[in-house]
Every structure is written in structure tokens, then in C-alpha cells.
Amino acid sequence: MTNSVLVEVLRGAVVESAHRGAIAVFEADGKPVWEIGDTARPVFPRSAVKAIQALPLVESGAADAYGFGNRELALACASHSGEPAHVELAWAMLAKAGLDETALECGAHWPSSHAATVALARAGKAPNALHNNCSGKHAGFLCTCVHAGIAHRGYVKSGHASQEMVRDAMQAVTGAAHDFDHCGTDGCSIPTYAVPLRSFALGFARMATGVGFEPVRAKAAKRLLSACMAEPFLVAGTGRADVALMEAAPGRIFVKGGAEGVYCAALPELGLGIALKCDDGAGRAAEVMVAACIARLLHADKALTAKLKEQALPPIESRIGAKVGALRPTAALS
Amino acid sequence: MTNSVLVEVLRGAVVESAHRGAIAVFEADGKPVWEIGDTARPVFPRSAVKAIQALPLVESGAADAYGFGNRELALACASHSGEPAHVELAWAMLAKAGLDETALECGAHWPSSHAATVALARAGKAPNALHNNCSGKHAGFLCTCVHAGIAHRGYVKSGHASQEMVRDAMQAVTGAAHDFDHCGTDGCSIPTYAVPLRSFALGFARMATGVGFEPVRAKAAKRLLSACMAEPFLVAGTGRADVALMEAAPGRIFVKGGAEGVYCAALPELGLGIALKCDDGAGRAAEVMVAACIARLLHADKALTAKLKEQALPPIESRIGAKVGALRPTAALS
């Protein structure tokens, strides 16, 4: 099936580009609330499921043993922009387990924050693995290993105890088999598994409500989502859509973007989980889709809906800062 | 009509994302040679038509008056990466007309070359309008104004003599009306007009052959395309797809990418013009489309075709440089 256009890119009054996609909204008992497009097709969730991947860090007792609060847990679920606060906190998490950045196997890249990149270059420095947007997640993996007495070397590889814990959590939470036929390697070198989009929506409804979980998992899931909602900057960075969405209604909206146009989200007050993917992998369109989707689901709150609808209309500017266009959700979404 | 998927993005063995698009290949007499998808829909060509926009620079005599050779003409047609050679040459072009970067109205942005950005920051500098990827085109506009005795202030605006010359050239070459209902503002502040994709394919077949042009225009068009093919680095920059494609067969392939997934190209030996757009605006997919399209059209040259087919399969790498996926053209394209 061909998914519908959910986001249009306007320049002047002309539609310049268009983005198709699929969206699934589920309750924790498995009831679909709203589905657009093909939600059965397997998709890689990429970084959108970092909160699920962080469950072993909490459930193993490692987070408590190292005294991790909201800030550290938010960073463990983050795709951060490599700003100084992110880098320093990732370093501090590793230090608690007696490690440093040389233990990280995620690779190094320049910060996604342009300002952070310029500042690093101006200081005559180059990025290391702490600047990798996944360094908080990897610090979480490493802390879990050290706490559990597992040799951490090779922790990114399929078959290592660390990734087996992550896979077990992913399968249990989403209810979908994570098999090797649908396994790829993520940008940070860990395995990522393609499963139906709707499974991620169901998984995040469970994460938000704890329905169907043992008490330890229910508590860990709520603690991780609460941490992200309490510290949105640490989950992303300056000017990022995830921060704007979570700050629009503190404690009421959880969102997490992933590469190639994926979002997972949860609305605890409605007991709903959301998962979406832009077919072509465009992050700009996925950001519009998630804002428009949440605006519709939280329509009862008029002030909040107005704010979210504005976030679903990001402007396109020329190099002198003049507004020359905008993205907008199509009727299918609003 | 819904365009077909022309490019798939693989992670492991799974298709992670997909890009739709349309392609038009025309002869200069208006005969369609190959069309995929909706080639009648108006699209903004963006920077893909800079060679047409540079015609007034040559036809007015300004290029000769200022002693511009292949290097300057290539830069006038460029979306450059803001590397030192680009910036210095844009400055030198302006100096020939007694101007400097303060005359540029394109706005400033950090170089698209990451290495150039880091070098600039390390030197404690910030970008100016010379680093704008369009600074060569704008230097061409300004030189044309000064040579013709036209006051250059506001040269980016619709209605200014500079943009009227550009619009006249665009209409004559493409044969399509450029009307205000289909006008938008480009990133560098000049007007851009959405016209059918096939009109750009026809236009570039004419640019390559001179068919249907007065002698002065035919000569100017060939001079501009030849300049780009002789100096591909100046048209783009280090590691860019346009450079790799033009260097694959020197003097035989002209290509120019534009924002939002557009390419225009010409194959002088076959007398063909090519125009394509990725529906969702993704440059990564447009690069695969143009390489695969040219590989098919030049299939008689086996060695060249093999090289182009490899360029149509760019790898996707993890942050440690491991190959974890690739883009590939679909059967519709190959």
C-alpha cells in the first residue's frame, strides 16, 4: 500500500516537496486508536526507542547504585546535540562506573549543534566519543555492565549480554519478535531491529501506563519517561523539536525522535503510545507529523493545541532570515 | 498521479526508507526520450539552473570585459562548498567590477564543507556573504549590472533589471512561462519559478546543442557548460557528487544539483537534456537518480557505465566507518 502525503513543503504558494508516512496510536491493552497508512510494515525505530533500551540500566539496579537521577536517566535516553552540558554529564556517568570515554564504542562525530561545533573548533579541539549523540545511552550500557560484573568490551555487538538485555526488553515491551532477518546496525554500532510500527505504539502506551508489566518494569518505565519529560534539554539540545514539544506541556508529553524520520511518543494522561515514520526518512517531516498528531489527540486543551499547531508549521527561511515558505500537515493529519 | 519509488535506502537487508521522483530526458527539438513519473508538474529548479541564469553575464559582454575564463564562469554556475578557493575567486570576480562582498545580497552562512567550517572557526573567523554557496552566481549578477551601467542595489528583487534578464533567459531557454503565480523566493533571495520538469530537460538539451538559439546564445550556453565540465570542483566542492559525476567523463557529462532534490544535466554527445526531482526533496536520492539515469543513457560506454553505477550505490556508514547500508536505484531506474 502507498502511504498518503502527510506533510507538504511550501515555497511561496507552491508545494515544493511532499512527505508520505504512517502513524499508529495505540492503547496499552492493544487497542488501536488511530492509524494512518501501513502500520504493519517493519521499520527500524533507531533512536526513538532509547527509553526502552534504557530499561536494563534501571531494572538492574545500576542507576540506583550510581545515584542516577532525572538528569542522568534523560541523557541515557538522549540523542543529544553534543553541547557542553551533554558531554560533561556523559563523562560523569562513566566516571561513576570507573570508566572514561575510551570505553565508548559508539564512535566520535562533531556535535549536531552548530554552535557547539564552532566552539569546539575555536578552542582548537576535535570531538571524541562523548560528543556522539548516543554517548549517554552508551554510558548507560557500560554502567549496567560494570554494575552487573559483565566484561564490557564489545558491548555494542549482537550476542553480547548488554545487547541481549536490550533485545529482551524491546521484545517484551513491543510484543514483537526481534529476529536476525530484520536486524541492521545503527549509526552507533548497536543492533537495531525492524518491527511493525504499531508494535512501537503499543510499547510506548505500556511504557507510559505500566499496563501488562511486572511492577519493577512498570516503575522503571515511568521513571525513565518522567526523567525525559523533566529534563528535555538533556534528551536533545538547544532549539530541537523534542525539547519544544516536551516543554509545551511539562510532564504530559513524551517524545523521542530517531534517525530516518521516526518518532515514538506517549501521552500518559490518555494512556496512549504513538509511533510514526516518514517514508523517505526526513526528520523535518517527522517533527511536523508528531506535533500535528499530538495536537489532535490533546484537542481538549485549546491553549496547548494552539501551541502544538504552531510547532507543526515550521517556517523556511532564506539566508537573510526572511520567511520564504513553511512546512504544513495535510488534511489527513489535522 | 503518484510517482514511483526510484531510490531505496537499505540498512542491512531491510529497506529503511524510500524516495519517489520524476525524471525527464529530452532532445533539443522537443522530443521526449525517456520520462518517468509526472514530468508536467511545476517544480522549482532552484540552483540546478544556474548555468541558464548565467547567460546574461556572458551575452552582455561582461564576462569578456572582466576577462572571465572557465574558472570564473564555473563559479558563476556553482553551488559551492565555501572552501578557500571558492571564496577567493568570488572575491576576485567582484574586485574586477570594483566591488566587494558588501555588494552581495545573498546573505551569509557557514560553508557546507565541514572542513572549511572547522578551519574558519579555528582561525577565529565567521562566514560572510562570500561563503554563501551562491556567491559566484551573485558575483556574476553584480558584474553584469556594473558592466551594463545598471544600479546594482536590490539586484536580487523581482522587477530589478538583473532578475528580469534572468527571467527572460529562463523563459526563452525552457520555453515555459515564468509567471508570478508560480514564483517563490530562493534561499539566496532571488525569485525562483516553478515550471514543468520537462521544460528544464528541454532547456538543457538546447543549452548543450544550441538548437533553437541565436548564435550569440548558442555560443554563450556552450561556453558555460564547457566551463563547468572543465572546472567541476569550482561548481561544487570536495567530495561532492556533482564533481564525481563530471570527473567520471570529462567534457561529456554536465550536471548541476539544486536544493530540494533537483538535478539538471546534459549529455552533449547525445544531444540530451535531463531534469529530475525527488518528490520529498532529498538530495541523497537525487544524486542516485542522476547517476543511474546517466549510466543508462551512456550504456554504450561499458567502463563509464560501471563507474556511474557504483556512484549510484553510495554506502551508509556507522560512526566508526563500518558500512551498514547503502542507497540503490530501483528497477524503474536501471
From TrEMBL, chains A, B:
Q: What is this protein called?
A: Asparaginase
Species, as recorded: Mesorhizobium wenxiniae
